[in-house]
Amino acid sequence: MRVVGLFAGIGGFESGLAAAGHSTILLCDNDPHALAVLAHRFPGVRRHGDVVDLEDLPPGTEVVAAGFPCQNLSMAGDKTGLDGAKSGVVDHLFRLLGRDPAPWVVIENVYFMLHLGRGAAMEGILGPLERLGYRWAYRVVDTRAFGLAQRRRRVFIVATRTAADPRGVLLADNASSRPHEVPDIGRPIAFYWTEGRSGSGLMADATPPLKAGSSLGIPCPPAVLLPNGRVVTPPIEVAERLQGFAAGWSSALRGREARYRWRLVGNAVSVPVAKWIGDRLNSAGEYDASGDLPWKPNDPWPGAAWNAGSGRFVAERTEFPLRRPRGRLSAYKTEAWPDLSVRALRGFVTRARKGNLRYPPGFLERLERAMKRTDLVFRAD
User: Fold this and answer.
1) Which of 143, 199, 245, 334 could be joined to 249 by an S-S link, Cβ 3.0–4.6 Å?
2) Contact present, 370 and 231 (Cβ < 8 Å)
3) Contact 74, 112 (CB under 8 A)
């Protein structure tokens, strides 16, 4: 099918859909650095800047992909929801669909929007889709289901005005839940070095969700404590692979512009998840809804739900559509990764010691030893 990518970023949605055989006819993003990557990776595809200035969808549009900005919806953002200046631009998606109702719409955003304002953002997305005549299904999906060494929970919404069943795209596949492994210092432990007091994102042999960093391009990669005691950070090429891109995907940005690569990669849609959706758009599965119960308006938003035209229902689905071998940081050449700075280590340990969070036995002591060792190496150099 012919795809229009709104809020395209560096093309995660569009790359995955292309791998499933779909073709992109328009890429829209207001970030000049994202547009530079899109020009490099999607040569010959029409590009447009701000969605605010896009008057109509191109003729023949069959799928609109929209991983719209999350800054006002995420736990780390200002939590103003769809009233925020960044996330509120999703209204232009509904403006365009009101003029040219595409047969299919695929939307992605952060897990926290299920809970923010008692799910006001979900209502602000699903309500307009329903009023435009779309039937929909949504689901929280963890990228670890696709063999990536990154825990990244995102809400995916598939909506259609065709006779097809959106549940067959998003809900037909289901694997059992997979508990996260308990971190121990015998394996890589990834964490947010910018935190420590009230959160840390601690993950065993995988990273927490990659962050976008600052709008000025200051990167914020996670830190990783290795079994040998070093504390390192993954290079940008590894971050690209953790999102399912080929290493160097964003390499069109060079020199001073290269600092923006982290922000673009951190904001991207994970490519293998988009490919799975693209495959199911080609060939939907069978979904048995016989055990599903109606969703009540005052209930919390569940991890999966649908409206096939007769009301909203809760779907009993895990965050793992597929069961694939776990992606692991220990599979990477971590010894070549750069060390986290002494200053960053010291800041994290200081905050962690003052906070009330529990850490694996020996974890903070390892960080303190790494801090001293890194400081000695720095002084020797």
Assistant:
1) 245
2) yes
3) yes
Query: Residue 198 — pLDDT band, cuts 50, 70, 90?
Result: confident
70: annotated active-site residue: yes
Catalytic residue among 6, 25, 45, 70: 70
**Which residues are CB-neighbours of 352 under 8 A, at least 6 positions away?**
196, 197, 200, 359, 364
pLDDT digits (tens, 9 = 90+) for 15-74: 999 999 999 999 999 999 999 999 999 999 999 999 999 999 999 999 999 998 777 777
* Nearest to 142, CA basis, from 264, 18, 272, 240: 272
Torsion sign (Cα): 310, 122, 150, 235: positive
Could you tell me what percentage of the chain is helix, strand and coil, using 3-state DSSP and rounding each to the nearest 5? 35, 15, 50
Cα–Cα dist 138/121, whole Å = 13
- Spell out the alpha helix ranges (H) of 132-204: 167-170
Question: SS3 for 188?
Answer: coil
Helix intervals (H) in the chain? 12-19, 32-41, 91-99, 120-131, 167-170, 236-242, 261-266, 271-282, 342-354, 363-380
Closest CA to 4 of 56, 72, 58: 58
| Cα–Cα distance for residue pair 64/44, rounded to 1 Å | 19
Name beta bridge partners: 203.
190
Locate 303 and state its tokens. Answer: 């991890």
DSSP 192-234: -TT--SS----EESSB-PPP---TT----PPEEE-TTS-EE--
Note the pTM of the prediction, 2 decimals.
0.94
Using CA atoms, how far residue 32 sits from 66, 150, 208, 315, in Å, is: 18, 27, 28, 40
Sign of CA dihedral 286, 291, 296, 302: negative
The CA dihedral of 38, 150, 121, 197, to the nearest 10 degrees, is -120
